Amino acid sequence: RKEVEQDPGPFNVPEGATVAFNCTYSNSASQSFFWYRQDCRKEPKLLMSVYSSGNEDGRFTAQLNRASQYISLLIRDSKLSDSATYLCVVFGGMDSNYQLIWGAGTKLIIKP
Amino acid sequence: ETGVTQTPRHLVMGMTNKKSLKCEQHLGHNAMYWYKQSAKKPLELMFVYSLEERVENNSVPSRFSPECPNSSHLFLHLHTLQPEDSALYLCASSQVYGKNYEQYFGPGTRLTVT
């Protein structure tokens, strides 16, 4: 089983729609969780951290479900500029040698 | 943005060549990283330097050789590469190593080995 697993997509979504995708992780002792965004042929950039209580940043909402070991990202009122690959990232602390463990990404395409 | 810069942006090299990738961070961070990104695969951590000392080497072939002369600069020396080494090589930095601080990435070097 992969340490961090994501549906690769692509998700083709009309502009203005709501889209959600999940990411599962295998290490139950994982400490911190993040969503990074990577535009085509660009570097990854932090989109948001994921807190235990869930958190929202504008149109983006992140949730953590420790019991089922997954995190989710919800994008409301999607824009063309949201088209990108969304990378799920998990920090396992000592269990993962203090490294970030990256998912392969979910590709999102917003269509006009 | 000039937080983390990488040169060259694109590199084509033959299997017998020797080349170096350069990374520079202007953020005052203490940890620097080399990642390999291949199509449809997760980022693979290759090397980590913390306060200029290598702290992690994730079973990377010896044809990749890192160098960290100071906390702002990181190099990846390449020699006798294989075609499967073609990928995007990303440099990143973070405030410290071993904590869940955000990593800031450079634009990457797209490497093609012929």
Walk me through what this model shows.
- The complex is a heterodimer of chains A (112) and B (114).
- Chain A is mostly beta strands.
- Helices cover 0% and strands 54% of the residues of chain A.
- Chain A contains no helices and 11 strands.
- Chain A has strands at 4-6, 11-14, 19-25, 32-38, 44-50, 55-57, 60-65, 70-75, 84-91, 100-102, 106-111.
- In chain A, a hairpin with a 4-residue loop joins strand 7 and strand 8 (70-75).
- Chain B has 114 residues and is mostly beta strands.
- Helix content of chain B is 0%, strand content 56%.
- Chain B contains no helices and 11 strands.
- In chain B, the strands form 2 sheets. In chain B, strands 2, 4, 5, 6, 9, 10 and 11 form a 7-stranded mixed β-sheet that branches. In chain B, strands 1-3-8-7 form a 4-stranded antiparallel β-sheet, with no helix packed on it.
- Chain B is globular and about 35 Å long.
- The termini of chain B are far apart.
- Classes of the chains: A mainly beta (112), B mainly beta (114).
- The interface between A and B is medium-sized, with 22 and 18 residues.
